[in-house]
Write a structure and sequence with these properties.
The protein is an alpha+beta fold. Helices cover 19% and strands 38% of the residues. The chain is built from 4 helices and 19 strands. Strands 8, 9, 10, 11 and 12 form a 5-stranded antiparallel β-sheet that branches. A 5-stranded mixed β-barrel has the order 15-16-17-18-19. The protein starts with a helix and ends with a strand.
Length: 315
């Protein structure tokens, strides 16, 4: 009989514990009935005081944090945001890795896509074979308060920027009162077609299709004078090129119509007479170029190339 009563007590105790756990879980769900995810970055316009609805439209209004208007990018420990939300019984999933960056003018006054198109067109003009994966435009200083009223007139940057994956550019705007130049920055993730040597090549070798192969390369600290998109006709090496080296005009040039050292007949007009002499070209040249020559009598003149075998001495 005693054992039976003890069993009843055990069952009652077990039910009481189960009910307690159930009530605790219900209370926990009630307390954290809302749930949001904190991201690593957020875009601002003119806001300075951020309330809960900035992070989630389903939340009620209560202040979270103040962002100084003078900052373009403002970093805040995510704990500062999370703690306020949790005080209001909101469950927070923090995906910010501890730091939240608030960025002003992310859409650049609604003109971000237009600026991206303009910068992309400059790169496409420089590299017709370009494949753009991503292009980002940023600002390093706060934009004017009336920037949305500005009209874009033009953009541009130094041609050396095409070799890099990031840089700055100028943008010219028509404002309600005058024209204004604003400097912005960009980052581009893109690839272009280049060419690399299949084997070692010595000086004065005329390139053929068997001497090189195509290779897509990322735009990142590209060598100056790199040959891209297509190989020009009549390329000739002017320096030693190693196997697998990317081809550039630093070590290659387009073969001229006449090369240094070739024999050519030079003419000179003296009064009514036209005299001719065998000569040697002292530099490479195309038809129409002015070059130095040496005659068979070891005299030096400047002459204009008029054909692949003739030149006219210039007095």
């Amino acid at each position: 009989m005693v054992e039976h009563d003890l069993a009843k007590v055990g069952v009652a105790s077990s039910n009481l514990v189960s009910r307690s756990i159930f009530l605790f879980l219900c209370l926990h769900v009630a307390l954290f009935s809302s749930q949001i995810t904190l991201l690593s970055s957020y875009c601002l316009q003119d806001e300075t005081q951020l309330d809960a609805q900035f992070f989630d439209k389903n939340l009620s209004h209560f202040p979270i944090i103040e962002i100084p208007k003078s900052f373009v990018n403002f970093d805040v420990p995510s704990l500062h945001v999370r703690s306020v939300l949790e005080q209001h019984n909101i469950n927070v999933i923090d995906e910010s890795r501890g730091i939240i960056t608030f960025k002003r003018n992310c859409d650049l006054g609604g003109k971000k896509e237009l600026l991206i198109q303009k910068i992309a067109s400059l790169y496409t003009k420089a590299y017709p074979c370009i494949l753009i994966n991503k292009l980002q435009i940023n600002t390093t200083t706060p934009l004017p308060a009336d920037f949305r009223a500005y009209t874009l007139l033009d953009v541009g940057f130094n041609s050396s920027k095409f070799r890099n994956k990031e840089g700055s550019f100028w943008s010219l705007w028509q404002t309600p009162t005058n024209n204004k130049k604003i400097y912005l920055t960009y980052e581009i993730d893109a690839s272009i077609l280049a060419f690399k040597a299949k084997h070692n090549m010595h000086n004065d070798k005329i390139l053929s299709n068997s001497d090189y192969e195509e290779q897509m390369i990322r735009i990142k600290n590209l060598a100056s004078n790199l040959i891209t998109c297509e190989i020009p006709a009549n390329l000739i090496t002017k320096n030693y090129i190693k196997q697998h080296e990317l081809l550039s005009f630093n070590k290659l040039q387009i073969k001229k119509d006449l090369l240094k050292g070739v024999q050519i007949r030079a003419y000179i007009i003296e009064g009514p007479l036209v005299l001719s002499t065998e000569s040697v070209l002292l530099e490479d040249g195309n038809i129409g170029d002015r070059v130095r020559i040496k005659t068979e009598k070891n005299k030096f003149f400047y002459a204009k190339i008029i054909s692949k075998s003739e030149a006219m001495i210039i007095q």
